[in-house]
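Worked Example 4.2. Consider the chain below.
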Amino acid sequence: MEQENGGPRKGPDGRPVLRATLLPSSKVEVLDNWNSGGLRSTGSHDVTCTAQWVPDDLTTGMEMAERQSGPLYSLPLASAFTIAMVGVPLGIAAASIDALVALAQTKVAFMAAAPLREQEHVQLAVAWAKTRLLAARAFALEAVEAIWSSVASGEVAPVEQQALLRMACSNAGDAGKEVVGRMYSAAGSTAVLEEMPFSAQLRDMYAACQHMNFAARLMVPPGRILLGLEPGTPMI
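Applying the procedure from the previous section yields the following C-alpha cells:
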C-alpha cells in the first residue's frame, strides 16, 4: 500500500493505491505456518520483510505496467490472476472423476452382486459430474478466449468480458465442489481411506476455493454490469 503524508495514498476512486514489489527470496523470511487441511504440498507460507529497499524498477501498480509488449501484459491484472486460477478446481474435479471411474471397475459394494460400474446410481453420478465439468470448462475457455482475442488485437479488454471471466471462475469453483462431493459420495466408505485420492481431492478443492478469486462477493460487480450499472469497484 503506497504511503503519502503519513497515511495511505488514495487513488481517484478514493481507495488506497496498492503496489506490487519484487525482491530476492534471500531478503525475506519464510514463516513455517502453512498447516492447512488442503493443498498441503503447495507450501503457501506467509513471508515477512523488514527494512528492505526496493527500487522503483522492481515495483508495479495493480494495473499491468506497459514495459513489455504482447497480450499477456495488456490484460487487466485481476483478469490475469483469474485466468491463472480458473483451471485449478476444474483439474481437481477431472481427477476426481477419473479416480471414481478407476475404482468402479473393481469395487463391489457391501451387499451388492456387481462392481460399482454396473450400479445405476454410479452411472448417473459419473454422467452428471462429467456434464457439469465440461460445461464449466467450456464457459471458462470461452471467457478466456474472448478477452485474450481482444487484447491480442490491441483493444482494451471490455468490462463485459472481464465480468464474464469472473463469472466463469466462480462457476468453475462451484462446479468443482459439486463434482468432488458427488464422487466422494459415490465411492462409498473407500473414500475415507488416506491411500485413496478422494479425501485429498475434497480437502484440496475446498481449500483452493477459499482463494479470493472464488469469493462469492466478487460476483457482485458482474451482476451490476449485467444490470447496466457501473462495476462499483476498480478491479473485477
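The chain has a mean pLDDT of 92. The chain has five helices and six strands. Compare this with Example 4.1 before moving on.
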